[in-house]
Design brief:
elongated; DHFR-like_dom_sf; Riboflavin biosynthesis protein RibD; zinc; single chain; 350 residues; hydrolase
């Protein structure tokens, strides 16, 4: 492996420490090297805090070495004032002579300006190092910037006989949860929730399951709740309306007395492309990624519009015989794993 690729790969590893906490900023990683030895590392702080380059520079004990060191970073250093000062300015201030960048930043306020600022100050700049790997790492941020929508992950669990939920009569006879997957698979889902910015479900899922949509079997921040509630059937007695995190309700009803204080209501036209309108709403709210967890009708909306990036499908060992059929995805899997007796299959729509 070439030396620059080695350290950009390390940047990606370091950056993953920020997964789920940096939104709406990208999770950037930075490494500072002097005479082939790492003297500093950093990743993006939670939103409003220092960026990766700042944290990496601050972690260097002997700051005099910076003027002879190389800074590696997954994404082009910012050149504008936002919540924090430009990272490019700090690099210049410390006279770091060489900067190696994995990926150019498509953000309109950066987009090559960071590199230009560094070069104008006399820095040697190399970029597009491990570009493919950096694009995969920054897929949420890139989708948001380039496609003006969040990165969309479809997730569902289905039985061995292809059902996503049991028949209503079974629920009426026994209202306890009908788990399709084992506890280990469910824990993984909670880990995923901690990694993404939002979670989206439809009205029927709320009415039938009364889910909390938070992170419980893992540690981390619970995602923004997004609820499709066309006719405002979800009231205050449901867990999703507890006000614990930002909540967005997508409806067709304007200015209703049913509006709950503190909840964000967004009105769309359900006779048109619903998935596209939801993407526009989430983009407006600076949502970089969303997990669509159900139910079947909601997932199908995104499949039919071909508005999704990844699908993660669990198949448990249970059988329902009859009930609500799971969506059908005519794609070739990109990965498959076994979680005890459950099977988890990954699909990509890139």
């Amino acid at each position: 492996m070439k030396i620059h690729e080695k350290y950009i790969l390390r940047c990606i590893q370091v950056a993953k420490n920020g997964l789920g906490s940096t939104f709406p900023n990208p999770m950037v990683g930075s490494v500072i090297v002097y005479e082939n030895e790492v003297i500093g590392e950093g990743f993006t702080s939670p939103y409003g805090g220092p960026h990766a380059e700042v944290n990496a520079i601050n972690s260097v004990n002997n700051k005099t070495l910076l003027s002879k060191a190389t800074l590696y970073v997954t994404l082009e250093p910012c050149s504008h004032y936002g919540k924090t000062p430009p990272c490019a300015d700090l690099i210049i201030e410390h006279k770091i002579p060489k900067v190696v960048i994995g990926l150019l930043d498509p953000h309109e306020k950066v987009a090559g300006n960071g590199i230009k600022k560094l070069k104008d100050a006399g820095c040697e700049v190399l970029f597009s190092i491990l570009e493919k790997e950096c694009k995969e790492h920054h897929k949420r941020f890139l989708t948001f910037q380039e496609q003006k929508r969040p990165f969309i992950i479809l997730k569902w669990a289905e039985t061995q006989d292809g059902f996503i939920a049991p028949e209503e009569s079974l629920r009426d006879a026994d209202p306890t949860p009908y788990w399709i997957t084992n506890i280990h698979s469910r824990q993984l889902v909670h880990k995923w929730r901690s990694e993404e910015q939002a979670i989206l479900v439809g009205t029927n899922t709320i009415l039938k399951d009364n889910p909390k949509l938070n992170v419980r079997l893992w540690t981390g921040k619970s995602p923004t709740k997004v609820i499709i509630d066309r006719n405002l059937k979800v009231g205050l007695d449901f867990h999703v309306m507890d006000g614990s995190v930002k909540t967005i309700v997508i409806t067709q009803i304007e200015h209703s007395k049913k509006y709950v204080p503190g909840v964000n209501y967004e009105v769309i036209d359900f006779s048109k492309n619903v998935a596209l309108q939801i993407c526009e709403v989430l983009y407006k709210h600076n949502i970089l990624s969303v997990i669509v967890e159900g139910g079947s009708k909601t997932i199908q909306i995104f499949l039919d519009a071909n508005l999704w990036d990844e699908a993660r499908i669990f198949k448990g060992t249970t059988h329902f015989t009859k009930g609500l059929k799971a969506p059908i995805l005519n794609k070739t899997p990109v990965d498959k794993r076994t979680i005890t007796k459950d099977t988890l299959t990954f699909f990509s729509n890139v």
